[in-house]
User: Fold Aminoglycoside 3'-phosphotransferase from Mycolicibacterium chlorophenolicum.
Amino acid sequence: MPRVVAEIAGNRPVSAVWVNELGGVTFRVGGPAPAEYVKTYPDAEAHLLDDEVVRLRWAHRYATVPEVLDNGPGWLRTAALPGRSAVDPRWAGRPETAARAIGAGLRRLHDALPVADCPFGPPSWVGERTPAPDLLVVCHGDACAPNTLMADDGSCAGHVDLGDLGVADRWADLAIATMSLDWNFPEGRWETVLLDAYGVRADPERIAFYRRRWNDEPTPPG
Assistant:
C-alpha cells in the first residue's frame, strides 16, 4: 500500500478495488458509508491525475461526479458516490439493464455539462481533425462501461474517471461506450439498447471513425 493511502486511511479499512492499464491502483478507504477513494498513479503518469482534478472540480458543479477532497503528486482523494460500476457482478447477468443505464447516463451527462463554459479541448485521443460534428457536447472522454455507476434500481447514479473530459462530438463518447459493451458483456448485442436509451440511431461512419482514433488506427483514404 502506498504511504499516502495508509496516512489517509488511519485506522479505517482499506481495499484495492481497481488496477488500470497504466499500473495505477485505486483504493477504497472506510465503509460501508461514508467512504472515500484514493487513486494512485506511477510517477511517469502522475500528471494525468492533475488533469483529472481540474476536470472533476469543474464538472462537479453540473453533474454527479466524485467530489475532490484532496490531491498531491501521483494521488487523488475523492468522496465516494453511491452505486456500483456497470461491470460489477451485480449487473453481469443483466447486460440489457446495464446498457440502458450507460446510454441514459451519457445523455444526462451530455445535457448537463455546458459546452460554452467548458475550458477543456477535445479528449486527448480524439485530436483536432475530425468529421463535422453531429452535436458538440462535453464528452466524458473515457465512456467505457466501468465508468458508469448504477443505482440499485438499475438507473445511472453518476460517472467516474473523467481525466480526459473535453468538448467533442457526442459520437466520441457513444462510439467507445458501445464498443465497450462487447468487452464487458460479450454474450449478446447491446449497442441498440444503449443508443435507444441515449435517444439516437447508430451513425456507422462516426462510430467507425472514433473507434479507429481510440485504437490509434489510421483513417482509410477516400
In short: The CA atoms of residues 68 and 78 lie 5 Å apart. The mean pLDDT is 94. The beta strands are 14-19, 25-29, 36-40, 68-72, 75-79, 84-85, 136-139, 148-150, 156-159, 166-169.
